TrEMBL record:
Top-level taxonomic group: Bacteria
Keyword check for Chloroplast: no
Domain Endonuclease GajA/Old nuclease/RecF-like AAA: 73-153
Pfam families listed in its UniProt record: AAA_15
Protein name: ATP-binding protein
Length: 235
């Protein structure tokens, strides 16, 4: 009863009860609603279609398309076969198809995205590429909360921050390494937190980048083990 009172005038009581009694949490129900309305949503064009193009070109190697019946499919670049339903495609397509659709048809300026471990199912080179696309989205006004355990993602974000240094030599290396200047990330646009011992510890970020203690420690330990193994075998 309290929910009905709080809903206010003009709210359909049946809808309130339906949401309360639904078998899925709100985010899942909203996702299912989007999935059931893909054909209509695909008629919209967002101002961020270039971000969808970046993901398709750099990471997926093909196009995410929606049929007239509202089925999400994937057409491989240069392929002659008919598009495959997304559920029959590689895991990387399954992981990113919804993000591509969102950027192309639903994204609005100032949107807030929560992305859990974007590196899942991605080869290291693609982990670096998606970090660049997300950095570009931040520079375009998106607010992104992202969790990651990937050293590749963290190191690429470090690169993007360090490349914001205005030195002429840094500007030259941006071009030499083929970075998109739209992905260069000023340190003030990045907040980093390390979740450790049930607390969120703020990690300092400057134009020199940042370090995540637990990951840096494990990389150092891995390198030390490798040196000991090589020395035992070839020393």
């Amino acid at each position: 009863m309290s929910e009905l009172l709080e809903a206010g005038a003009g709210t359909d009581p049946a809808e309130v009860l339906k949401r309360r009694a639904g078998r899925y949490a709100w985010p899942i129900r909203d996702s299912l609603q989007v999935a059931n309305d893909l054909a209509n949503l695909a008629k919209n064009t967002s101002p961020f279609t270039d971000l969808a193009d970046d993901l398709e070109r750099a990471v997926l190697g093909g196009k995410v398309v929606v049929s007239d019946l509202g089925e999400l499919s994937f057409a491989h670049e240069g392929g002659s076969a008919r598009p495959l339903p997304v559920h029959l495609t590689a895991s990387v397509v399954k992981s990113l198809a919804s993000l591509v659709f969102y950027f192309r048809h639903m994204a609005k300026p100032g949107d807030f995205l929560i992305i859990d471990e974007p590196e899942l199912n991605l080869h290291p080179d693609n982990q670096r590429k998606i970090a660049r696309v997300l950095a570009k989205a931040v520079n375009r006004g998106f607010k992104i909360m992202m969790s990651t355990h990937s050293d590749y993602v963290l190191r690429e974000l470090n690169h993007l921050v360090m490349l914001s240094d205005p030195k002429e030599s840094v500007s030259r290396v941006i071009d030499e390494l083929g970075y998109d200047r739209a992905s260069i990330l000023p340190p003030e646009k990045l907040g980093v937190y390390l979740f450790k011992e049930q607390t969120a510890q703020l990690v300092p970020v400057s134009v020199d980048g940042f370090q995540v203690e637990t990951i840096e420690h494990e990389i150092a330990a891995l390198n030390a083990d490798a040196q000991a193994i090589y020395a035992a075998r070839f020393g």
